[in-house]
Design brief:
By secondary structure, the protein is an alpha/beta fold. Helices cover about 40% and strands about 10% of the residues.
């Protein structure tokens, strides 16, 4: 008999991909120039030239069997060392290679962090709005996910709600900054207050209360935005990172888990990660791209286009009467829906060939997500559609 958990999941629509596939069908019918797809968070800028150079160098310098062979379970030593050195240079940390575990992107890093820090039956607490896939990630680890309602005024943390949510069964708090879907960036004041609360709760519980920091958008922070390195402000932090956005390599599935050296049992957490891999079939990150990021981890793609797109949208949407918190990073914004039912609003947006995602799937009803990781000319061409949609609601 087939696994009931996964057959039941077939009945659950992946809303984002449903919208994306609808956009593809409209593109086939009326042409790509007439469809404004803001559904999927797929980078729209090319990798930096250092990536292609590193690939060519690896292919020419290293024997094929060595290049394409299995890597150690923890990751290649040179990749782990390069990640540690980068974090230490950039953020003034004290990581060693022994604190780094190479993964197939941030999702894989989260899969390992959740299983390392929590036992089946425990709970993970996070704050809305939150990435929709946190639900299957935690469920797949045998954990429950408790979501604190959003602080919609600024999309920082509702600390009263968070304190109430943390209980005897809480293993870790999961945060995502810069945030998907809101684009909010947790300030130094917010993270310091979070650290203070977690230390208090750890003492109250008589055990570490871990912080899992999901950081795939860490390198997309806009000018003059306060964006601390979270692990520097709380000792028991495990950081999950992906090169999908910084190097525009989403299809290569390469990232890492980094355990703060000051974290209790820091090296033991990394040591058990390969044992977790045995149970989930992770079996090591791609050898070639571990070597590529070891060579190119200091570089980034041309990320400034996202801030340019954000500025264009913020000016126009404000003029059209939309209400929103201006993003501080990532390539998302999360305006309020002009009607309470964000699903209905996003369906109405399709009448103008605008593909938007309802906030309900991010545990924040009444909002919608715009993924503006598209060429700038597409943003500009979409503005009349946003204006017409606003006019439908009498906003202008």
């Amino acid at each position: 008999m087939l696994n009931r958990t996964y057959t039941d999941m077939l009945q659950e629509k992946d809303v984002i991909f449903e919208i994306f596939h609808y956009a593809l069908s409209r593109i086939r019918e009326i042409g790509a120039e007439n469809v404004f797809d803001f559904s999927l968070g797929n980078p729209s800028v090319s990798p930096p030239p250092q990536v292609a150079e590193a690939i060519k160098d690896e292919l020419s310098e290293r024997p094929p069997l060595a290049l394409h062979g299995y890597s150690p379970s923890f990751g290649l030593p040179e990749a782990r060392a390069a990640v540690a050195e980068h974090l230490n240079r950039r953020y003034g940390c004290h990581y060693g290679p022994q604190h780094i575990f190479m993964t197939a992107g941030a999702a894989s890093a989260l899969a390992h962090a959740l299983r390392a820090l929590a036992s089946p039956g425990q709970e993970i607490v996070t704050c809305a709005p939150c990435f929709s896939e946190y639900r299957p990630y935690t469920a797949g680890a045998g954990l429950s996910l408790k979501i604190v309602p959003a602080s919609v005024e600024d999309f920082q943390i509702d600390f009263a709600g968070l304190e109430q949510a943390i209980g005897e069964n809480t293993a870790a708090v999961l945060v995502n900054s810069p945030n998907n879907p809101s684009g909010a960036v947790y300030s130094t004041a917010t993270v310091k207050r979070l650290a203070q609360l977690l230390r208090y709760k750890s003492d109250e519980l008589g055990r570490p209360l871990y912080l899992i920091s999901d950081e795939p958008y860490r390198d997309i922070v806009f000018q003059d935005v306060d964006s601390p390195y979270i692990a520097n402000l709380y000792e028991d932090t495990v950081t999950c990172y992906s090169y999908s956005k910084s190097l525009s390599l989403p299809g290569e599935r390469i990232g890492y888990l980094a355990v703060n050296p000051a974290c209790r049992d820091a090296e033991k957490i990394v040591e058990i990660c390969p044992q977790i891999s045995r149970t989930i079939g992770h079996n090591g990150a791609a050898s070639l791209f571990q070597r590529v990021v070891a060579r190119t981890g200091e570089a980034t793609a041309e990320l400034s286009v996202y801030e340019k797109n954000k500025d264009i949208l913020c000016r126009a949407l404000k003029e059209f009467g939309y209400s929103f918190v201006e993003p501080g990073g990532s390539f998302y914004m999360f305006p309020r829906s002009p009607e309470a039912d964000a699903f209905a609003f996003c369906l109405k947006a399709r009448q103008h060939e605008l593909m938007l995602v309802p906030g309900d799937i991010f545990a924040c009803p009444g909002h919608f997500r715009i993924a503006y990781c598209v060429p700038t000319e597409r943003v500009e061409k979409a503005l009349p559609a946003f204006r017409a949609l606003a006019a439908d609601y009498g906003m202008i």
